[in-house]
Design brief:
mainly alpha, two-stranded antiparallel ribbon, two-stranded antiparallel sheet, 53% helix, cobalamin biosynthesis, transferase, CblAdoTrfase-like, ATP binding, ATP-binding
């Protein structure tokens, strides 16, 4: 369990922060940038939830929890030392990825095929889901870049990839199952 009784510690005042294994690194390190962008993704999901109700809100709440899991995974390097850790590190699982895939398939089953790209918008919730989609794509790109330098749990990358797809499909669902999608008209303003 996490206990936070003091919010500022001053230990980061020199531009470093602690990872989940206690190692200190620069706040601009690729690992910190990746999990920081996962945290930013979570904040955009929180904004989307301001407009969500029912099943979509419950699914977004589960995604927010998953994103904390993902941040915990990314802030803990040295996956090969997981068995030696005093407390087993929290790692993303393929089951979390499979859940997103199942939800995408269920949501997509009632949608008509697209004949054009969609402009972010329609309803307020759809617009926020598009923001979630783009920020999660950035988190994915940064996590993939981190994986070229250090070991990264493959399920973390897969989750971010599916999350952006989930947000896209969900945006269509909340836009009247696609009826209220705003379609791109190539060259419309030439």
């Amino acid at each position: 369990m996490v206990v936070l009784n003091k919010i500022y510690t001053k230990t980061g005042d020199a531009g470093e922060t602690a990872l989940g294994n206690g190692a200190r690194v620069a706040k601009h390190s690729m690992r910190v940038t990746a999990y920081g962008t996962v945290d930013e993704t979570n904040a955009t999901v929180g904004l989307a939830r301001l407009h969500a109700t029912g099943d979509i809100d419950a699914r977004l709440a589960a995604i927010q929890n998953d994103l904390f899991d993902l941040g915990a995974d990314l802030c803990r390097p040295d996956m090969e030392k997981d068995a030696e850790a005093e407390y087993p590190p929290l790692r993303m699982s393929d089951a979390q990825v499979a859940r997103l895939e199942s939800e995408i398939d269920a949501m997509n089953s009632d949608l008509a095929p697209l004949r054009s790209f969609i402009l972010p918008g329609g309803s307020a919730l759809a617009a926020h889901l598009h923001l979630c989609r783009t920020v999660s794509r950035r988190a994915e790109r940064l996590t993939v870049e981190l994986a070229t330098m250090e070991a990264v749990n493959p399920a973390a990358v897969k989750y971010l990839n599916r999350l952006s797809d989930w947000c896209f499909v969900a945006s269509r669902v909340v836009n009247g199952n696609g009826a209220d999608d705003v379609l791109w008209v190539p060259g419309a303003n030439r």
